[in-house]
Amino acid sequence: MSYYQYSVTLRYMCRTFPQKCSSFYPESTNPALVCNIDMILDYMNSGIFAIIPKSCYPALGLTAGPGDVCMMDSTKDHTDEAMRECGEAMFRILTDKFAGIFLKNTKFLLSDTPTIADFRFAPMLIYIKIATKLPSRLEEYFNDDMGNLPLFLDTIKKVIDFAQPKWKI
């Protein structure tokens, strides 16, 4: 499943099970919020998610894809430099867009209640923390705002256990 399909799947679940999920994607009651949710999901798919494989997969022993620096013998020596560069770019995106805009005035991404954009983004912070230290607002968002949702941290515990030894603290 590609990054793009996750967003489609989340939308599908909200539409298929509105009695349980409509508050996370309120198409019929809050179309303005749905536009914000869609914009954030599209921004993630075309922006930060493209950097994740290059910035943290090599640290986990995973391949980043054909033609990537860590995959070619002639450029493998530059893997750490490429990961650092991607981590710096990711930190700028997290600071400018996510902390600076999407979480500036709200508890969750452009909302005071969690949406599918949060359920899509927050788990990715587990891997992003391999590439860069999170801005303080994103640490608060992950640990407190999302962390206080029922079952959120329990659901992703195994992923945290897998990635945490590589986190930039």
From TrEMBL:
It holds the Pfam family GST_C_2. InterPro entries: Glutathione-S-Trfase_C_sf. This is GST C-terminal domain-containing protein.
